[in-house]
Amino acid sequence: WGVNEQRYASVEPVHHLIEQQAIARPDATALIFGDTELSYAELNRRANQLAYRLIALGIQPESRVGIAVERSIDMIAGLLAILKAGGAYVPLDPDYPRERLQHMVSDSGIELLLTQQAIEAHIPRPAQGNVLLLDRLDISDAPEDNPAVAVHGEHLAYIIYTSGSTGQPKGVAVAHGPLAMHIQAIGECYGMTPEDRELQFASINFDGAHERWLVPLAFGAALMPRDQEIWPADRTAAEIAKHRITIACFTPGYLQQLAEFTGSAGRQLPIRSYTVGGEAMSRSSYEFVQATLQPPRIINGYGPTETVITPLIFKATPTTRFDSGYLPIGSPVGDRTAYILDADMNPLPVGVTGELYLGGRGLARGYLNRPGLT
After folding, report:
1. Were both Cys, which of 89, 101, 165, 294 would link to 82 (CB 3.0–4.6 Å)?
2. Distance (Å) of CA 178 to CA 12, 21, 182, 275, 309
3. Is 199 exposed, middle or buried (0-12, 13-18, 19+ CB in 10 A)?
4. Are residues 136 and 34 in the same domain?
5. Are 212 and 240 in contact (CB under 8 A)?
């Protein structure tokens, strides 16, 4: 725990990092979806053309744009286009109940909805009624260059809604500055390189997924989103082997299932780094996965939505030992602070139970429309 130095104050917005990769490595693979591969130049062009359409419809910094699409190339291009236009994206899961979606649409104040024809009827329209169907949109005549939109660190990047287990879901507003800092810092922690290929398993309606799609593209690696189906462990193992995936993130429970399958099948996977998150990983589960999959590294990512994805990580190698019953949550990522304090907010010594306080530049802007709660 403790204080990290402020090393990331001048990091550019995440979409600019991806644009730089498109310039430096235009022909390199950016996206893999099924049997389709898209280069950085092609992804950047598609996102630019859509961004110009959004700008023409009035999208600018602080505009909120809902995105409700099935997992696809359209999903990634749509997210990137919203950022390029200066807007903030609001993921809307088509599988959510309509009442929950209605609350998210009205509470977020989205000005435009990006969706697809097959699911349009299930998604409530924004008050202004603007809807674009990505699978029916012709933007072939739109400009292909990067839009010149001035985006600052305090401008909104995205809004994620919490589970709402204690009432209506709350929107957590994340700004470009903390997001860019986190993406740069966590990518360095992962040692992400252009030779890597990452499997994006989680839904974009969970905050962890925004690290998973942004880090590979910001560092020149290839991103492979999972399709709409829920994959059993044998399918996941086959896809990892087929596409030579090197980095993947799962819940501890699913990673154990994957280890059980590969162990019984006698298979080895090309993964060099697994990340776990979403729940605590027990010591027994960690030891089983380590012994079965024998990965060079397992990373535990921890953090609530309000602290921008994973403010704390713990890196474990085959020689790592720890005394606790669960995989530790580690130390701060990027320009953040972490302290264990007592009820009077005094620092506690090692081994004494207290409350975890996180601070620094890696915090969300606040709860949307709830200044008192923020």
Report:
1. 89
2. 11, 21, 6, 21, 10
3. buried
4. yes
5. no
- Residue finishing a domain among 109, 137, 172: 172
| Co-location of 154 and 297 in the same domain | no
The owner of tokens 């880090």 is: 215
pLDDT digits (tens, 9 = 90+) for 104-156: 999 999 999 999 999 999 999 998 779 999 999 999 999 999 999 999 999 99
The tally of domains found in the chain comes to 2
pLDDT (tens digit, 9 = 90+) per residue, 252-309?
999 999 999 998 877 889 999 999 999 999 999 999 999 999 999 999 999 999 999 9
Verdict on whether the full-model pTM lies above 0.85: yes
Domain residues for 330?
216-367
Q: How many residues in total does the chain contain?
A: 374
* Last residue within a domain, chosen from 172, 203, 230: 172
Domain membership flag for residue 200: no
CATH number, domain with residue 27: 3.40.50.980
- The answer to whether 14 and 28 have CB atoms below 8 angstroms apart is no
Co-location of 87 and 165 in the same domain: yes
Same-domain check for residues 44 and 162: yes
Q: Looking at the structure, tell me whether residues 226 and 165 fall in a common domain.
A: no
Could you please report the per-residue DSSP string of 93-150?
A: -TTS-HHHHHHHHHHHT-SEEEE-GGGGGGSPPPTT--EEEGGG---TTS--SPP---
Radius of gyration of the chain (CA): 20
Structure tokens at 21: 């990769």
Q: Is residue 36 part of a domain?
A: yes
Within 10 A of 62 (CB to CB), how many other CB atoms are there? Answer: 12
Task: State the DSSP code for 306.
Answer: G
From residue 123, give the alpha-carbon distance in Å to each of 57, 119, 129, 207, 236. 20, 7, 12, 21, 30
Residue 311: the pLDDT is 95
